[in-house]
């Protein structure tokens, strides 16, 4: 990059991420970047800059050859898809923060880069301010990985911290997260686990060379969390974290899953609180390493976008080394067994899930709490039923491959 020339940026979106990037560049006068055009959707919306600073026509920005690179920072994944793919077809250099866009369309985005010579970076799409994609892509490029797991959603983690540290009700903790800008007015993507699923799909491509479709990942969240579930965790000396995990089985198959999990004092993720994210990368030779950083907020995510802006202007692009190295795409380990806790008022749900090694933890007039084993295939097949039933499901350990015995409750065998 020629440090004597100011590089011009076209920015799509001026919400939390877009404003975060704008504010950082306004403060860091020594950086050779200038946001030349800002494209937004709603002309009537009140913004902190004069109206003449904005464009309302995406085509105007896409067609401007004077712009050196484009940054996409809008929330609507469908609109983001149109902008990013149009830019790549023009051979443009593009940075995006939209994890849903990348998760659903990564194979197509790879093909467009190859065909038209454009470049797409998306560090800000996963784990906020943690440079986890670049770390997995570069540092672990030649080391086989055994597992990548962690807390990938700062909003849900903030809510859980308020519940366990300050004994706040779920509704109050959610409202506080929304007031602080950590959670959207419609928080479903965050609290239901869908946002973590999108990020896990992206990480899996870089860590294991498998472009997962989101539909291949079972995901569950904290939106049905109740007082009985909290008491179960406390009685077992644990808190609850929403954990996204992908690991290799000894047979070389992968297990991708997003699931609330019991986390004890010895767990690396126990120290990850509030709006922070934490990712544990376990190398075949280097062992587990924890990466921790803010996962929500304009400045942390804006800083991740800026890192991509600097890298892309210096000619960097992802090499997708694990994708290139693989001889065959890892299959899903559909028969992999996970030990879970389930609270449900639907007696048919256990039968649908093919629960086995079942133990009743607590019976009540309105629902039963049960511990047992279930396969990955069963979770995939029944995840909608679990959500529709308002049931809450929880892994007994954040290490899904190593079940944790529940000792604090007297178990009763089901007849």
TrEMBL record:
Residues 13-123 form the Aspartate/homoserine dehydrogenase NAD-binding domain. Keywords: Amino-acid biosynthesis, Methionine biosynthesis, NADP, Oxidoreductase, Threonine biosynthesis. GO terms for biological process: methionine biosynthetic process; threonine biosynthetic process. Residues 131-310 form the Homoserine dehydrogenase catalytic domain. It catalyses: L-homoserine + NADP(+) = L-aspartate 4-semialdehyde + NADPH + H(+). Its EC number is 1.1.1.3. Pathway: Amino-acid biosynthesis; L-threonine biosynthesis; L-threonine from L-aspartate: step 3/5; Amino-acid biosynthesis; L-methionine biosynthesis via de novo pathway; L-homoserine from L-aspartate: step 3/3. GO terms for molecular function: homoserine dehydrogenase activity; NADP binding. PANTHER family: HOMOSERINE DEHYDROGENASE. Belongs to the homoserine dehydrogenase family. This is Homoserine dehydrogenase.
């Amino acid at each position: 990059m020629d440090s004597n020339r100011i590089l011009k940026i076209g920015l799509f979106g001026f919400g939390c991420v877009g404003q975060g990037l704008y504010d950082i560049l306004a403060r860091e006068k020594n950086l050779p970047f200038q946001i030349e055009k800002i494209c937004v959707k709603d002309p009537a919306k009140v913004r902190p800059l004069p109206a003449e600073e904005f464009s309302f026509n995406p085509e105007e920005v896409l067609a401007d050859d004077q712009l050196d690179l484009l940054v996409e920072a809008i929330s609507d994944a469908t609109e983001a898809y149109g902008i990013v793919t149009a830019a790549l077809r023009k051979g443009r250099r593009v940075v995006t923060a939209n994890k849903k866009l990348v998760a659903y369309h990564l194979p197509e985005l790879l093909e467009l880069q190859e065909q038209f010579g454009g470049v797409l970076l998306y560090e800000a799409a996963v784990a906020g301010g943690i440079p986890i994609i670049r770390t997995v892509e570069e540092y672990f490029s030649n080391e086989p990985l055994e597992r990548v797991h962690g807390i990938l959603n700062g909003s849900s983690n903030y809510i859980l911290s308020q519940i366990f540290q300050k004994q706040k009700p779920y509704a109050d903790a959610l409202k506080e997260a929304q007031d602080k800008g950590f959670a959207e007015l419609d928080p479903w993507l965050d609290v239901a686990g869908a946002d973590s699923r999108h990020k896990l799909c992206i990480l899996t491509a870089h860590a294991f060379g498998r472009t997962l479709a989101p539909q291949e990942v079972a995901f569950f969240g904290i939106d049905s969390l109740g007082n009985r579930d909290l008491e179960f965790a406390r009685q077992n000396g644990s808190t609850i974290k929403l954990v996204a995990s992908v690991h290799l089985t000894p047979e070389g198959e992968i297990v991708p899953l997003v699931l609330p999990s019991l986390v004890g004092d010895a767990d690396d993720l126990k120290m990850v609180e509030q709006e922070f994210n934490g990712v544990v990368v376990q190398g075949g030779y280097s062992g587990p390493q924890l990466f921790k950083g803010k996962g929500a907020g304009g400045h942390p995510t804006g800083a991740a976008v800026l890192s991509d802006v600097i890298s892309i202007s210096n000619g960097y692009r992802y090499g997708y080394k694990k994708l290139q190295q693989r001889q065959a795409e890892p299959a899903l380990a559909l028969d992999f067994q996970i030990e879970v806790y389930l609270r449900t008022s639907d007696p048919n749900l256990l039968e649908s899930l093919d629960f086995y090694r079942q133990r009743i933890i607590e019976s009540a007039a309105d629902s039963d709490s049960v511990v047992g084993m279930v396969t990955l295939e069963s979770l995939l097949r029944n995840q909608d039923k679990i959500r529709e039933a308002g049931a809450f499901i929880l892994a007994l350990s954040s290490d899904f491959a190593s079940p944790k015995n529940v000792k604090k409750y007297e178990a009763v065998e089901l007849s």
